[in-house]
Structure formats: structure tokens, C-alpha cells
Amino acid sequence: MSKLSRIVITGVGLTAPNGNNLAEYRNALLTGKSGVQPYEIRYFGKTLAGVCNFDATRYQKRKDIRRGTRAGSITVYCSHEALKDSGIDWAGVDRSRVGVYIGTTEHGNVETESEIYEVSKQNYNLDFWTHHHNPRTVANNPAGEVTLSLGITGPAYCIGAACAAGNLGLIHAAQMLQLHEVDLAFGGGVSESIHTFGIFAGFKQQGALAHHEDPTKASRPFDKARNGIVVAEGGCLYTIERLEDALKRGAKIYAEIAGWAVNSDATDYVLPNSERQRECIRKALKHARLEPGQIDIVNTHATSTPSGDEMEAQAVQAVFGDFEGVHVNNTKSFIGHAMGAAGALELAGNLPSFDDGIVHPTINIDELDPQCTVRGLVMNEPKQTSGVSTILNMSFGMLGINSALIVKKYEG
Questions:
Q1: Which residue among 122, 198, 237, 322 is the one 20 to 30 A from 16 at the CA level?
Q2: Rounded Cα distance, 378 and 391, in Å
Q3: Residue 106: pLDDT band by 50, 70, 90 thresholds?
């Protein structure tokens, strides 16, 4: 087998509850700006959520927005923003050689709930059911809406991997580029989860939905008083290329994708397994040919649930606890849990560290839970370092799927 190509990230497009591009988002992470706010959804009532506020009409006509989905609009916005950021000459691209790989937690729940609500007003007369329902609810919808918007004729589909899906979108894109199935890929993750009342009701029934009198303090990973998840929407897509192609066109390179791993707990529907998480991290390190002490930033998945944070802290401490230079942070404390978009968004927030050497903090830690003690945890204030060269991004999901993605600073 010939030597595999090196894979790099050359463009970033995102919308998060606290920013609609990488510069806004990064500034929010460094200044402690939360994107969590009061939110109300039918049947469930008042709650809290991470809500995005991007201009969907920038890249879509209103007719397309009405016909499509919220996840589709997020994906279209992020793909166009990533493309613009990459500087790629789109007119000269063979679009049959472009792949679209979108990580999602779930898709179709929002649209189905909305349609049932609408026909309930008509005494459940299904003559009022929309003919747009099927294309809105198929699992490949977000990826398909991107192909329609950008005229992409290559492979485009979604990867269902629960809350590990954002990482999986990047991993799959890298693999397809190394296999030369495509020459350019859009990879990442999206979530429209706040628009379905079912997810709020489900987490509440599990005793896993966050509450706090101050919405900005509701998401508090590793804090002793944490009490659950803040549901968020959002998306982040990257343009991903083979290194030789990026260099040929003189592209700005954000990072090189150095290694990854995906495994399964085979333990429980929702409860995490710290040992399997540990194994996933070690496999990613082996793939990247790195030792634990060579990682500069570990971005944790921690969702602010009591048991989840504790299990992850144990895994991180077991792998990295002997190494002084490893910094640990968390992004959900700012935006809540963006489900399928989480991994992709959380990676983006750390990428500027390659340039400025600053590690953004985990906010809202008023009293660190002793069971979540992790060496190197950056709390409440950013930390200036002598330099950042490697980032490990962790994302885990229900049914026991774990992912770890390692990127490094491109240095030739």
C-alpha cells in the first residue's frame, strides 16, 4: 500500500449560540461569554437552551428555508462560510469529486413533531400533512441540502453517531480523502435539537436536564453543583483536503488531522464506561504516534451530568495525570450540549490556540467536584502558554459510542 496522504483543515464555517464565525466564537470563549438563554417550547414549557442567531437568508432563499429544515439551513450556512474561509476557487472545482460528511445526533424528530402539531389543529385530518415531510425527515437531509445549494454531485450523506457525530464527520472525511474517493470534503456536525420538545422531556425524565436561576451558569461541567445538560443547537463544518492539494493552491492551513479512534462501550444505553473511553484515547494517541505528554490541550466532552463528568474525569486523569504540560478544558460550559455538532464546534474553539498559545477555560466552576479532579484543568480564566502544537478532542454518545480526534499545528 502506498503511503497515506496527510490531511489538513483549510476552512471553518460555524454557527454557535455565542458566535456566527470563528473570530466571534473564539472571542466569546476567551471573554467568558455564554450563549445559554431562557427558552420555551410547546408542550414542555419554559427551560434553558443554547440558541443560534445566524442569518439563514445569506445563502438561502426564503422559499428554500420554508421547504427545508433547520438542520439543513445550519448546514448550508456553515458549508458556505467554510468554503468562503478556505479561499477555494469554487468555479474551478470538479464537484463530482467533492464529498459531504455530516455528523448528526438524530434527524426528523423536529419536523415530525411540528407536522403532528399542525394536523392536531385540524382534528388530525392528514389532508393537511405537508408533501415536504419525507425529504425533510430522511437521515441524509442536511447533507442533501448542501449539495442542492452548492451544486455538489459527489457522495453526500450523514453519519449517525449520537453525540460523537461531530468528530465522526471529520474522521470520515479524512478517511475518504486518504482513499482518494474524493479530492475535497466538507466534514463536521450539525444539530437542530432545541426545536424538538421530546429531547427536553426525555432528559427531564432521566433527571439529566439542567436548571439554574442564571441561564449563563446552568452548564457547569465538573462543578460540584452541576445538575444536567443544557440542550443547544449549532453547527460547524470544515473544508478538508490532502496536504499536497492545499499546498499547491497556497491555502491557509488551520491544522493537520494527526490521528483518531472510535470504539464502543457495549455496556449500557446511556451510562458511560470510563475504561472504554480510556482505550479510545490511547488508540487515537497510537494512531497519531504521540505519547500522552505530547498533547497540549485535551478538550473534554463533559456534559454537566453527575456520573458522566466523573467517569470522563477518571479517564482523562488515568491517561494524562502524570504529565504537567497537558491542559484540559471544556466548551459546553459556554454553549451547552450541541449534540451532533458538539465535537466539531468544540474543536473549532481550540484551533486558534495554535496561533496565540491561549487555552480557553471551562467556566462556571465555583467549586470543583473532588471526584472530577483532573490535573491541568483550566478553570474560569484563559491560560497563556508557551505554545500549543497538539489538541485532542473527545466526544462520546449514547449507546456507548466514543471518539477521539487529534489535530496538530502544521509545521511543514
A1: 198
A2: 14
A3: confident
